[in-house]
Structures are given as structure tokens and as C-alpha cells.
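Job type: complex structure
Entries:
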Amino acid sequence: MSVEHSLDLLWGNGKRPSRGPKPTLTVPQIARAAIEIADAEGLDAVSMQRVAGELGYTTMSLYRYVPSKDQLVDVMLDIVLGEPPAIDHAGAWRAGVQTWVREVWGIYRRHAWLLRLPVSQAPVGPNRAAWFECALRVLSGIGLREDEMVSLSLFVDGATRELARSTADRRQASTSFATMLQRSADAERFPTLTGLLDSGVFDNADDTPDDLAPNFDFGLQRLLDGIEVYVQARREA
Amino acid sequence: MSVEHSLDLLWGNGKRPSRGPKPTLTVPQIARAAIEIADAEGLDAVSMQRVAGELGYTTMSLYRYVPSKDQLVDVMLDIVLGEPPAIDHAGAWRAGVQTWVREVWGIYRRHAWLLRLPVSQAPVGPNRAAWFECALRVLSGIGLREDEMVSLSLFVDGATRELARSTADRRQASTSFATMLQRSADAERFPTLTGLLDSGVFDNADDTPDDLAPNFDFGLQRLLDGIEVYVQARREA
DNA sequence: CTAAAACTGTGTATCAAATACACGAAAATA
DNA sequence: TATTTTCGTGTATTTGATACACAGTTTTAG
């Protein structure tokens, strides 16, 4: 299975063969070259040819290191995530979650192509595991059951990802979200939408450069409120 | 811009030219054929050749209707969403949101390929607008500001989408999430994760056939709690 | 009513990108 | 030193999107 192979790649289970010439490249090196291309010109610009070219090798040489392009992308994902920060979660779980989210948001911001990857189907590499671990640690010890911690981690992660995506897309879209809707909406069919459009809510929302989109932050705060309530209720029970 | 053209396609701004033979196909018809293929065999099976073949036409004939495959996919998206249900939101916003989510979840369930689309960058078609409208309507009148309603709609939509995705992926993955982690995790590096693994939290979670994944539902409930708290606080202020 | 115009469906051709395969050079081992 | 194994490479195949030009069809101008 390719998953197996990807895992080897990701977790470095490589036994160096004793014979033959030594490899001059490494998988991380290749992945890093690919990441640079993706950062600069988007994921579509990342072809095996291009990556190899950037490294000064031929296309096919890469296949000595990576069994397929998809697997290379898996590696790119894990490498670009990097190590999660050490979040000091002493009691301050709410701040902890926010830090976590902000960090992830920043990564998405710096590497917009990440948002195009089918992350959830990619095999889990060391860094992704570490980020997950980090989230769980932040949430642990505040009175949630284990499965609840997992649920919330996934929920926060998912919301962050998808909101980052829609924010980025709206940012890059030549036609803004508002314009797009404006053009389409007719008042009878979409009264609420039309009302909002007229009120200007959609105009240049999310222009925040590095911070969380206000759109996202509001939802996140409500979620955190909800967790607080739940934890409290549980404690009292 | 292709966005413009897509919008025409989606909203049916087509002025039939007066000259020449009449077209025998229609864009929705083509899209529906493509959807059937995607449902049955996944998005990768949808090639222009295949779609045309299914309709009994040649590959190039499709280009008389659709300027590119990407635009066809945009149309597929809007068509497969269909019309949102009429949610009776008389006061029961919480139930309303849950209904909305459940419906969307069902669509994702029936058309897993939807989760692979870069939805947020696709132009908004009539049905997508209607779903958005529907969500806004459910949230309106409960004491939120307009921009807050928008934020929450996006947040819920995003979380639903990404959680549906990860649930689907885990479902279809031959190697389950647990196994994958099990293989990778080492106890020193990922203590919390390892602990959870041992506790069996990951084993056959989310086997729910049609309902929301419990994983997702928990997060959603917390979010709804949070909204409730917020609305209440606002009312009192 | 006829010719020009515009559009339809089609066949052929191009282009890009992944990747299978086989080769010669290099390194380790017997 | 002969053999084995692996490396980097060149070539070839495949798949899919899509440009382009052609022939038949339907309108409308004149």
C-alpha cells in the first residue's frame, strides 16, 4: 500500500542499502525545494520536472527518493508544518487554544497551497502528530473526557482550516465575495442575503493582514465560551 | 475573466443566439451526467471524454457548452447542492442550525467527491447562495448583529465541511486513523496521544452511518452553547 | 428566395505531466 | 578483482485537457 510507503518516508524508516553509490539528495531536501516553488508560485507550479530542475537534477532522479508525486506532497505537508510551539498551558487553556489556532493560521497564511491539500486523507507524519499532541495537551486537565478532547481538537482544527481557506480565497479572488454575490443575488429570492449586502457587511471584511480573520475569531470565541460552560456544568455535577 | 463566465453559466445568463442549429444538450444535463460518474466512481473518473461518452457525444462537443472542465465542476457543485430545505425556524434557532448541518452532512455523505472541491474559491451559484440564505435566516432574529450572523454561518459551514471530510477519509482509509497513529507514535514524544490511543478512544469512532459523527456533534453542541450564552449576555446588557 | 452569417457537432493535433523501463557508471562485498 | 546493487539519466508511453478547422444546419439580410 502506498500509505505504508508514505509512512516510511515520513517517519524516516529508511535503511540505507550498503551497496551502490550514495544518494546525493535527500527526501527532505527535495520536499523543501518543492515547498519553495509552491510558496512562490502555487501548488500547480510544482511538477516533478520543475522540482528536479530547481535542484539541478533530472526529473526521473526524484523517483529514486520518492515513489510518486503524491507521496512527495505528503512529505511536503509534514515538513512545512514544522514543530508546534511549546504552548504554556498552565491553567490557561483558553489562551492556549487561541495560540494554537493563531499559529496554525499563520502557517496557512504563509503557505496558502496547504489549504488545497486533502490533508485528512494524507498519512500522519511526525509534525502533524506533534501538532495534534499539542492541541490535546492544551485541552487536557480542564475536566473533559478524553473523547471530548479529541472531538474538540478536530473541530477546532477543521474550522480553522476551512475558514483559513475561505478567507484566503476571498482575499485572492479578483472578484470579491461581495461583488460576486451582488451580481447574483436577487432580492426576492435571497432577502436576508440581499439585506446583508446592502448593509455592507461583506465589504472588505477579513482584510486583517496577519491576525485571525474577525469572521473566524467570533466563531472561535463562541466555541470557547461553549466549552467553558460545558466544563463548568460538568464540574458542578 | 473565467469567473464572469462561470457566473453566467451558473445563473443562466445565456442569451440563445438566433442563428445556427439548436443545441441538443444543456449545461445542467452535462453536469448531471458528470455528477453521476463522480458519485459512482469518484471525481478522478470524471474526464471530459468520459462525460461525453456517457452522453453519447464526442469529447469536444462539451466545449460548446462549457468553456473548461473547471467551469463544469463549478456547475456540478451548485447543481448537486440542490435547493435547501425550508427550515421552520420559528424561534427554534438551535434546532434550525442542527437541521441545516445535518442536511449538508447528508449531501457530503451522498457525494463524497464534493469534499475534494475547492469550494470556497468557486463562484457562488444560485443553490449555494440559497443555502447561505437559509443559514442566515435560521440565525436571524435571535439577537445577533448582522456581521455576527455571517461569521457564524461561515464558521458552522466550515467546520461541517472539514469534519465531514476527515470523517469520510477515515472511513474510507484502509488503514484506520488509529492504526496509522499507532504505528507512528512513540510514547516519549507524544505522551497524550499515546495515552489516548491506549484508552481506545480512536477505535471505530465515527462509524455512524448516516447521522453526524459524534466527534463532530460534540463540537457543534459546544458552539451552540456558546452562541446561546452570548445571545443571552447580549440581551441582558 | 437566396446568400451570407453564425452556430452546432466532430476529427485531428498539440501540449503538459506522471511515470515505466532500461542503461551505464559507481560503490561495496565476496 | 568479479559480482552485486544502487544511482542518475534518457527515452517512451499514457492520460487528459483543449486549440483549431471543417462540414452541416439554421437564420436573417437583402
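Summary: The radius of gyration of chain B is 22 Å. Residues 82-172+206-236 of chain B form a domain with the Tetracycline Repressor; domain 2 fold (CATH 1.10.357.10).
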